[in-house]
Write a structure and sequence with these properties.
This protein is mostly helical. The chain folds into two domains: 23-123, Orthogonal Bundle (Arc Repressor Mutant, subunit A); 127-238, no CATH class. The chain has eleven helices and two strands, in the order H-H-H-H-E-E-H-H-H-H-H-H-H. The protein has a two-stranded antiparallel ribbon. Helix 2 (33-49) crosses helix 4. Mean pLDDT is 76; it is low at 1-11, 108-124 and 226-239.
């Protein structure tokens, strides 16, 4: 059997030993695994091999052991639509592609020689969106904590604060709903039922929240008309 010799016109192609996928690309739920791997190959050419990715769809498919190079074309379309790559063409009709530019790349810190965090990636609108979502979540969580502390301050039967907070956090009341909760709580604190027998019938805060008791209809009487001499000891408990 004769050995096939490599001619001068044939290009010896070396596949990468490993591929890197930036976290914003990997975490994007509009992309599938093939899209992520295609991006990793583009990044390999751009940052680790030639400083420029001029690879054809067939070349990228070869690296990833894909049978159909059209799979690469579809992946490139999704990556570009989601702002992760930019394709440059030699002609106005976009028939001859010149290069593929990855828009999310890593850079190395000059201080500790470690791969930088997502905050240091270059050109990524996805990063900005993630930051905004993170900041909004922090803001919302702070609001929930502040509102719960106001609720806890008003509620007379202070039992199992941790469990009550978990329920309050799950409810996550809007500004209007929280105003309704506080208004109802202040009225119920003055009701005869909550003064009876020294306040022993006041529900635990978690129970009150679970039952959405702020929606209860109550008949409010003046405290002095419902307090007995014995119940007067509970006056400070309701205030």
């Amino acid at each position: 059997m004769e050995n096939k010799k490599t001619t001068s016109k044939e290009k010896v192609f070396i596949k990468p030993d490993f591929l890197l996928i930036p976290l914003p690309v990997y975490q994007n739920n509009r992309l599938d695994n093939i899209d992520c791997f295609v991006y990793a190959v583009i990044y390999w050419f751009y940052s680790l091999k030639d400083g420029k990715c001029t690879a054809s769809n067939a070349t990228i498919a070869n690296i990833l052991n894909l049978v159909n190079y059209r799979t690469v074309q579809n992946a490139l379309t999704r990556l570009e639509e989601n702002g992760f790559i930019k394709r440059e063409y030699q002609d106005s009709k976009k028939r001859i592609r010149e290069e593929i530019i990855p828009l999310v790349t890593f850079r190395v810190s000059s201080v500790d020689d470690k791969v930088s965090s997502v905050d240091d990636t270059r050109v990524s609108s996805v990063d900005d969106q993630n930051k905004n979502i993170y900041n909004e979540n922090i803001k919302e969580e702070n609001t929930v904590v502040q509102n719960f502390e106001k609720f806890w301050h008003e509620y007379p039967n202070k039992k199992n604060k941790k469990k009550a907070f978990e329920k309050f956090k799950k409810i996550n009341p809007s500004e209007e709903m929280f105003a309704l909760i506080l208004e109802a709580l202040k009225k119920q604190k003055k009701s005869p039922q909550w003064f009876k027998d020294g306040g022993q019938f006041i529900p635990h805060p978690t129970t009150w929240l679970n039952g959405e008791r702020w929606n209860d209809e109550i008949s409010v009487h003046k405290i002095e008309n419902v307090l007995s001499a014995d119940e007067g000891k509970y006056n400070n408990y309701a205030n």
